[in-house]
Q: What sequence folds into this?
């Protein structure tokens, strides 16, 4: 089997690493890839949003399966473009990808499917959104409808703050077209967890729960990032509740998209708030989370290529999804200053030594290999991921491994996994 992975983060390194373990996979290409994916396959200099070039490459190389990592190519319709050429794609079509690409679409689908989610309104007119905020009161959540790199959500503690967010999004148009519509919703209280499932259009099979750490500083303080670390399972979402979430959230959405003749294939990721009234959906993503993917790939105890092909062929029900019983935990090493401005081009060493500890894998994100040396190219550089018998053991091992990794101007959180001990 010949596979093309699209993307360049730690998530794509983890997918390439796992897919390379399959005896059926002969060749892996990663577009555009990074310093880590270069060790698992061949990097190809094509951007994730250059659909014509990606499709042409997949045709030229007789690719058997395309695996888009990030949401952008999915929302732009890579699956639909590949369908026209008869090339299988592990990911949803552009219609279903709106579950992530449009928060208004996702809320309307949830409402239609009867999925528990915060009460909401969708607005195109600033004055109507403002009146809704004044009517509901604070705290209240304001969300730009479209993709905004995780920055389009404001959890407002006062109506003034909410109205200011509406002004920025709807009047000053700080998110461009992504803010043409705005979702305003009730503020939920609870702890968050990620519930990530494989889907084949009909059947849904869950990976174990996980939890990421979005805030840049310890104790979940400071600005939000793409994710500073993650671990699996998340005790706040125990296995005893998976069936309930499949029945109340995942299956109704997949069934509804099926009846619209737009089957959902690929990864359906629900960001769940565990409230005192049960699990509520905060958001859907239509791909693996980064960094959740890294610890999840370390727990997956089967051939990922088999599972992905089963999804594409509608055979997920017959395909087992064994998972290692242990806990995995990944700590992101970032460049100091991220998510603000940060230096690039730092030399990285000690990855082999960290991995030599055993049950450790260093997934690379913002890296490249220059003249034989691995250097940083982005804000989130590495994800040092470890497996242990329980959360304490996985955490201990990840931080032990981190001591071997050397990079100037490195920053990482010292408390990844802390919520799991509560
Ligand atoms: P991501 O960076 O995960 O893509 P996003 O921009 O798609 O995020 P959401 O996940 O919808 O946006 O919201 C971001 C964060 O805002 C959530 O992780 C949660 O912490 C908070 N949030 C969103 N909706 C609510 C809500 N209704 N009540 C309380 N907090 C919320």
A:
């Amino acid at each position: 089997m010949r596979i093309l992975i699209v993307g360049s983060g730690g998530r794509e390194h983890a997918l390439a690493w796992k897919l390379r373990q399959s005896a059926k996979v002969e060749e892996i290409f990663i577009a555009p890839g990074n310093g880590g994916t270069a060790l698992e396959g061949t990097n190809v200099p094509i951007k994730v949003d250059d659909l014509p070039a990606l499709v042409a490459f997949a045709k030229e190389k007789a690719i058997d399966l395309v695996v888009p990592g990030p949401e952008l190519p999915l929302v732009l319709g890579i699956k639909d473009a590949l369908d026209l050429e008869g090339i299988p794609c592990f990911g949803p079509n552009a219609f279903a990808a709106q579950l992530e690409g449009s928060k208004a679409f996702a809320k309307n689908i949830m409402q239609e499917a009867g999925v528990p989610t915060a009460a909401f309104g969708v607005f195109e007119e600033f004055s109507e959104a403002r009146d809704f905020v004044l009517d509901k009161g604070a705290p209240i959540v304001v969300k730009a409808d479209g993709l905004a790199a995780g920055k389009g959500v404001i959890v407002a503690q006062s109506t003034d703050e909410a109205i200011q967010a509406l002004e920025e999004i709807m009047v000053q148009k700080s998110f461009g077209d992504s803010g043409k519509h705005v979702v305003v919703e009730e503020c939920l209280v609870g702890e968050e967890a990620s519930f990530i499932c494989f889907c084949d259009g009909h059947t849904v099979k869950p990976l174990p729960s996980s939890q990421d750490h979005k805030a840049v500083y310890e104790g979940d303080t400071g600005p939000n990032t793409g994710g500073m670390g993650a671990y699996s399972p998340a005790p706040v979402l125990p296995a005893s509740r998976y069936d309930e979430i499949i029945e109340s959230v995942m299956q109704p959405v997949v069934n509804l998209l099926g009846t619209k003749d737009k089957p959902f294939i690929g990864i359906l990721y629900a960001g769940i708030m565990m409230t005192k009234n049960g699990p509520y959906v905060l958001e859907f993503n239509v791909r693996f989370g980064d960094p959740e993917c890294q610890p999840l790939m370390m727990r997956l105890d089967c051939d990922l290529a088999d599972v992905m092909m089963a999804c594409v062929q509608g055979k997920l029900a017959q395909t087992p999804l064994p998972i290692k019983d242990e806990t995995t935990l990944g700590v992101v090493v970032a460049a100091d200053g991220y998510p603000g401005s940060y230096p690039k081009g730092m030399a990285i060493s000690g990855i082999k030594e960290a991995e030599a500890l055993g049950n450790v894998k260093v997934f690379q994100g913002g890296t490249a290999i220059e003249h034989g040396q691995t250097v940083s190219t982005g804000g989130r550089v590495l994800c040092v991921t470890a497996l242990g018998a329980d959360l304490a053991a996985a955490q201990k091992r990840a931080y032990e491994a981190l001591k071997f990794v050397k990079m100037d101007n490195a920053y990482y959180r010292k408390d990844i996994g802390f919520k799991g001990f509560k």
